[in-house]
Amino acid sequence: MIELAHVSKRFGNETAVDDMSLHVPKGKFCALVGTSGCGKSTTLRMINRLIEHSEGDIILDGQAIKEYDPVKLRRRIGYVIQHTGLFPHWSVVRNIGLVPRLLKWPAAEVQARVEELMNLLGLSVGEFGHKYPHQLSGGQAQRVGVARALAADPDILLMDEPFGALDPITREKLQDELARLQAKMHKTVVFVTHDMDEALKLADHLVVMRAGRIVQQGSPLALLQHPVDPFVESLLGGLERGLKQASLTRVKDHMTSMGQMLPAQSRIPADFSLRQALSMMLRDHCDRLTVVDQHDVPIGELSLRRIIKEAQLDKGSA
Amino acid sequence: MSLMDALPTPRLRWEGRRPNGVLLSLSVVMLAAFWSLDAVSVAPNRIVAGTGYGALEAFGWPGVLLATLLLSAIGLFAWQPSTQHYRALLASLMALMALMPVGLIASSYLLIDPDLPQARLGLGAAYWVILFLLLLCLIEIRLRLKLSRLWPTLLLTAVALIWWLCAALWLDSLALVQEFRARDAQFVRAVGQHITLVSIAVSISVVVGMLLAMLMRRYSRLQKGAFALLNFLQTIPSLALFGLLLGPLAWLAAKVPFLAQLGVSGIGTAPALIALIAYSLLPMVRNTYIALEEVSPATLDAAKGMGMRSGQRFWQVRLPLALPVLLEGVRITTVQAIGLTAVAALIGAGGLGTFIFQGLGQAAMDMVLLGALPILMLALVVDAGLGALAEALRPGGIQ
Known about the structure:
A: alpha/beta, Rossmann fold, CBS-domain, 4-stranded antiparallel beta sheet, 14 helices, B: mainly alpha, MetI-like fold, 3-stranded antiparallel beta sheet, nucleotide-binding (chain A), cell inner membrane (chain A)
């Protein structure tokens, strides 16, 4: 669990972070989003004391971080940065084993843990173990970066635009993989990005920052439904907002039981997103879809009219 | 789409194999030098200036033909360079260098009168020019074949061995050999002194330079002043610095008997070492400082974020990553010190410079060479050795 209470950071006369309060429950994924220079990276780096905060309290698991030895604090927090920060003179295996070695694990345990993590991240030990960082592609290097951060099995993971320097396809692949890992490991994650789609995709809790202050925070869906001001709305994609919201909703949440009418021709699996359903309606020129389970057996139907009505109800209830 | 777009762009068969202009022109210049300049000179004794002889007189027809063939081969291979051709080029280069002393043996038979034991053979302008240009060719070929620095060093060592063997067995008449024979014990001592002076000066400046560079990183205010001082020291001519040290050191030795016992005096080893260290500090400090500062901030940030203590960050991350650039500093410093130590002979510190200045005084150019050539070779060997070491230490083989 991470708790920020009225935290501020001043560099001379400049205020980088201003009276920030944030609560990240254990096992939750929190994304800090904002334009560059809004203080999101500073916030992240205050948590592992790479930057010392000027005011307020940062509390990890009930203890203020000022009471920790900074080095010991950092060894129990995973840290991933944009350009990987891998040590170019160390092999992949040695890079990943860094924190366990700092914690003086026995060599055999370090080796076993490194191999476990490489397998977890889809890096073959035989193929990549002895390579050096410059021999890796951007995606492979950042996998190693993530493996290194997870090496000592920290409860908390700090990620500073980890996928910012990757091409869109690799980025999406790594996002999917991170989501998969998080579903398995339930780390408490603070994730900094300027890519709203990335944040919407990964986060349980979204924090929008501007000029060192929190503008709005809440679940991705809540922000999409009710952005507090035009700034947040534009960050969320303006007119695209409806589709982004639809991509966070599953078909099965809007499905009704089979009606009296003939079943629609087009079929969609129940765990697809509403966005994919809308796209299919546009493609097939229809306003109804038959919802099927994983064995392609019809289990209900989806109607455009009903989706719109439900959206109106949501708006009305706010 | 027009028909023209559909057709493949015509490609020349030898595209990407354009003649190597550097090697081609070097080959032409070498041929010209071979045919027009004096190959060797012969003098009846040490003092009289020698008479020059062209290639034809010096080597006879077979020798001239062979050399012309090999020199033209360089040009021919350079016309359509491929990996094989570059290898062939390297081979002809080595053959030429190995044949050069053989040519000298030939001319000593052809030109030296066996009844004149004082007569001596000197290397002519063609020899020096071609030797120098062959070295340039070697550098070019090394770059084209992407060889490590170690290879040319090994090849040149082999060539040097051949030269030495020829000189020791068959080239008694060569002026350089005669100069060496006349003072071989002195020569060995001078080489020893030279290497000792350079090693002491460089080791001290490596230690002091690293400490200074680290202090500069800690106290940024020191940085400006220290660099200004070191830059200023570098601009003082070496001879003037020796002169400047003469007074204070003589005074110190007179006042403090302990220092005098250590060998400190106005002339000799002490002022030479002080001056050498003073000159060596700038390249050493500058390279160390840059090497340590240039380490990527992202890497260091990660090291800190991972929970490495500052000592661990320095010894495990910053220093190993800085090492190649740092060694480059040691290389520059050492090569510079090898040259400067020659001047130290003027204030009685010994070393190979002694021969240079004695030779200049006696107008005996061969004796000057006896001092200058080993200095040159020493510098080349150190340069190649430390360069190869720095190359080998690049992290994970990054070029």
